[in-house]
Structure formats: C-alpha cells, structure tokens
Amino acid sequence: MIAKPTPESLFEHLKSCLLDHARLHEDVDTYLHPLVHSLNEWGLSIAGASVVLRTKHPQLEMLVQRWHPTTSKEVSVDDVRTIVQHYANQKADGTTEVYLLKHGHSNQALYLKSPFAAVEVSGKAESWILNEHMNPPAFPIFPDLVTRGHTEYCVVPVPMPAPYSFMISLSTKAPGGFPDDFLETMIKTVPYIRLSVAHKVERIMMTELLAAYLGRNTAKQVASGRIRHGDLQSLQAVIGFVDLRGFTALTERLNSDQLLALMGSFYSSIDRSVTKYGGEILKFIGDGLLFVFPAHEDATNICQSAVDALQELQMRIHKANKKYPETPIRYAAALHEGHVRYGNIGAPKRLDFTVIGAAVNQTVRLQELGSDHDLTLILSRSVADPIEQPTELLGSFQLTGFKDHLMAYTLKGSMDHD
Predict the structure, then answer these.
(1) Backbone phi and psi for residue 193, each to the nearest 5 degrees, phi listed first
(2) Do 206 and 245 have their domain in common?
(3) Of 173, 189, 212, which marks where a domain is finished?
(4) What is the dihedral of CA 178, 183, 189, 193, to 10 degrees?
(5) Residues whose CB is less than 8 angstroms from the CB of residue 157 and which lie 6 or more positions away in sequence, other chains included
(6) What is the pTM for the complete model shown?
(7) How many Cβ atoms are within 10 Å of 403's Cβ, its own excluded?
(8) Rounded distance between C-alpha atoms, residue 383 and residue 359, angstroms
(9) Is 1 a member of any domain?
(10) In sequence order, what are the residues at sequence separation of 6 or more whose Cβ sits closer than 8 angstroms to the Cβ of residue 209?
(11) What is the tens place of the pLDDT at every residue in 108-167?
C-alpha cells in the first residue's frame, strides 16, 4: 500500500491508470476492475463501484456494471423485472455483475429513488457520508450499504455525446470515508474517464446492436471480422422453423396494436425457449422464424436440446392462451438435423448472415407438412431417433422439391394449443 495520497498524487495515479494502453484491449465488461485495483493500491478501501450507461438501442435502455469484492454478495435483484440479461465476470480481487436493462427501467421506482437518478437530474457530482444521511435515509440503498460497512458513497457524471450518458459510483469502507478532496479529484479525472470509456461504448453498442438484429453468436462472428461476401462455414446443426398459424385471419380481426402485441408475445416466447437451451434465432420471415442449434465439440445432444426448447415453448404458449383466451396463439413447428452452410450471403450491397442448404429447405417443407396435419411440432427421423421423449411415426412423405421420401414423427401426448 502506498502512503496516504495527496489530491495531486492521486490524480496523477488515476490519470496514468485511465490512459494505460492496456485498457484498449481489455474486455468491455472488466472496465471497473483496473480502476478499483488502482484506487485500492492507494489504500482507499473501495467496497463497491458501479457504472451506468444509457444506450441507443432498440431493446436496451441501460447497461449497468456493478463491482463488489469476492468476499461480499451482490445486491439481490430478484424483484427487478426490467433485466434482459445478467452475467458475472469474476477476478481474484472482485466480481463485476453486468446487467442489460430494457426500456422503461428509468421509470421504475428502483431507479427514480437512486443516487444515479438524482445526479442525472442535477448534472453534478455528489458524495454522501452515509451515517450523516440515515435519519431518514437519503436513498433506499443507503441502509444496505451501511449494513455492509460502507462509510461514504459518491456518484460522478461523465458527459457523453447525446443520446448516451455515463455515470460512475464508488463507495469505501475506510473509517471516516474518502480522503479530503476525493470528489474534486474524481471530477478532475472526468476527461480521462471519458477518453478511457469512449471506445468501449462504441464496442458495446456495436456488439449489442449486432446481437439485436443478428443474434448474439452471429454478432460475435461479424464483430470478429467474418464480413466478406461468400464467407461460409460448414456445420452440422438442428434447424428449426416455426410459423404462426391463421395469421391472415388475425390481421383482419385485430387492430395493429393488438396484432403487434400478440406477435411480440409469440416471438418472445420462442426467443426465451430457444436461447435457454443453446439455440439461436437467425431470421424472422413474415410471421415465421428460423433458428438453429449448432453442433459443437462440447455440446450435448443438440436434438434433445432442440426438442426440450420446443416443449418449453408449448408450455409458454399454453399459459399465454389460458391468460388471453380471446386471442389464442396457434403455430406449427418443425425440427430437422442436417448439414448447412453458415455465413455471409446476398448481393454486393446487401448481405445477410444466415444458413443455407438442402436441410434448411427440408425443415421449411416439414413445417408446412405439420401445419397441414394440424400439428404443433413435427420431427424428422434424424431428430426423433436420439431423443428421450417417446415419439410416434406419422408416415413417409415426399416433400415438395425433393425426390427422396422423409420419415416424419411427432411427440406422443404433445400439448394442444388451447
């Protein structure tokens, strides 16, 4: 530990940390680790740190990172309904919890009654000696911080070009709080914080925007440089196709808001079910949806995963239809395993990252067969054979455009839509 810092020496230390070239190569979700480590080198006993980034994104309003020591537990978020995704990045001296929050989070009481909201409104950095703001608590989080032994808490806004905004918070367990003039030192470092975080904001937004439109795994492929026209990868996969049935009748019966709400519920149910079991949505096609479960060396039975996902989808839709019986969702889905080519196809000025191959076309034709037979789920033999669930043979069918016949199956006791 270094001797008690002066404001000038602490500023130079933070400046050096923030401008270190190594920060250009660190993962975006580890931004807080080196900053906290740098402050603790100077004996500041950092007990917690957070960043809040407002984004320009079709699905996300905010990205939040919260660092805590490995010896302490993260604050419970069980009641937070605006979390789209949560994951953790653990290192020897602490863990960063990452939260992606959907639009509307800033209208929730949890945010409106937080120090971040107060600082966002004032535009000024603030610091609180916690024991001096407990009767009554200035903010609902303060009692928990005091229970954890925190003594002082500060929030510093970092100006960013609209529509982005960025704020950082720090808390300490040091007796008496932060050193004198600590808040002023942090304010002085704001231009360097902005420099160190600007390129990360761009990386975050590029990755998250690509993920919103392409899917997370495909987004990683594109972000890593697989962007050339005709750059295709061969792989074995389970291909799935789901189509909303009776869509034309729904468009005539429902107004646009009702129709969008129903389709949103349908697509959301598919997304949650498919991604939970390791699949990825590739494309929305009208009122249908194409997804894949790629085979990997460390993957378990991808056929089993795909069928489990579709059974969960059945349960989700069953619950939704019981809740909204006046607008029941009916669909037909198909699963088929085969060889596909995955990558960039399209015209010179308009590319698409998707899968192509005979197996994809067979899956679509199989789904049409299932719809004709009023089935929720239909399987090819390549999927039906290795799964645990009992199946029954529907027959051997010649699919449109294919010479060879294909054996089709369904699950025994499959759940109805109603």
Answers:
(1) -60, -45
(2) no
(3) 212
(4) 80
(5) 119, 120, 123, 124, 125, 165, 166, 167
(6) 0.62
(7) 6
(8) 12
(9) no
(10) 57, 58
(11) 999 999 999 999 999 999 999 999 999 999 999 999 999 999 999 999 999 988 778 899
